Amino acid sequence: MLCPCGCGDSIELMVMKGVAPRWTIHADAKNRPTLHPSIWRQSGCGSHFWLKSGRVVWCRPESQVNRF
After folding, report:
1. 3-52 tens-digit pLDDT
2. Domain residues for 10?
3. C-alpha distances in angstroms, 31 versus 24, 36, 45?
4. Ordered DSSP codes for the chain
5. Are the CB atoms for 59 and 50 separated by under 8 Å?
6. d(CA 17, CA 40)
7. What angle do CA 4, 15, 65 make, to 5 degrees?
8. CA atoms within 13 A on the CB side of 41
9. How far is CA 39 from CA 20, 32, 67, in A?
10. How many domains, the chain?
């Protein structure tokens, strides 16, 4: 898949059993994909997001997380 930030990079995720790291993929009734765990690009743009029901849900940067 292409990175949703718009940088143009291709993201390859392993979904086959027996490999690590591995993501699980599920499709809802409308065939929209959900991936688990989140996708966090450690190089390049550094995007960190979830794919839930076909939508990108961005993780907040550490600086925006409330600390209690």
Report:
1. 999 999 999 999 888 888 899 999 999 999 999 999 999 989 999 999 99
2. 1-68
3. 15, 16, 28
4. -B-TTSS--B-----STT-SS--EEEE-TT--EEEES-EE-SSTT--EEEEETTEEEEPPPGGGS---
5. yes
6. 20
7. 45
8. 17
9. 14, 17, 23
10. 1
